[in-house]
C-alpha cells in the first residue's frame, strides 16, 4: 500500500512538471491573428492544384467538399515563417463533417485531412501592412 502511494505521488509530481513545462513553452510562442489566409487544394485525380485566398468564416467549394477557413494565426517574431489555420471540411452530399481542426503550414501532416481525392493544407496567413505617416 505504501509503495503504491509513493509511486502514485511521484507519477503525479512528474506529470505536473511536464504540464508546467508545456505551458511555459506555449506562452513563449506568441501569435497574432489574421483575417485572411491562403490554402492549397490538390486534386489527385485531375492532377491539378489550386491556391485559394479566404477570409475568416468564408467558405470554398471544390467537388462535394465545403471548406471553411475559421481562423489564421502566425508567430509574431516570424510572421512569414508559419501559419496555424483552423479549418472545417464537410461533405455536402452526406451533410457530415469530415475534418475540423488546426493545421500547421510548416507541418501539414501533423493533423492532416485524409481524403481519397483531395489534399488541403494552409500555405500562409495574409498579413496586412500598416502604413504610418
User: Helices and strands: which structural class?
Assistant: alpha+beta
Outline the biggest β-sheet: 5 strands, antiparallel
Number of E strands? 8
**Helical proportion?**
10-25%
Which range does the strand content fall in? over 45%
Radius of gyration: 20 Å
End-to-end C-alpha gap: 72 Å
Number of domains: 1
Uncertain runs are: 8-28
Question: What is the N-to-C order of secondary-structure elements (H for helix, E for strand)?
Answer: HEEEEEEEE
Chain-averaged pLDDT:
81
Taken from the alpha-carbon principal axes, the silhouette is globular
Continuous helix count: 1
What is the strand and helix layout of this fold?
Blueprint: H1 2-28, E1 31-34, E2 36-43, E3 48-55, E4 59-62, E5 65-75, E6 84-91, E7 96-104, E8 118-126
Antiparallel strand pairs: 1-5, 2-3, 2-8, 4-5, 5-6, 6-7
Q: How would you describe this structure to a colleague?
A:
By secondary structure, the protein is α+β, with helices and mostly antiparallel strands. The chain has one domain (31-126). It is built from one helix and eight strands; from the N terminus they run H-E-E-E-E-E-E-E-E. The protein has one helix at residues 2-28, and strands at 31-34, 36-43, 48-55, 59-62, 65-75, 84-91, 96-104, 118-126. The strands form two sheets. Strands 1, 4, 5, 6 and 7 form a five-stranded antiparallel beta sheet that branches. Strand 4 (59-62) and strand 5 form a beta hairpin. The longest helix is centred in the N-terminal third of the chain and has 27 residues, at 2-28. The termini are far apart.
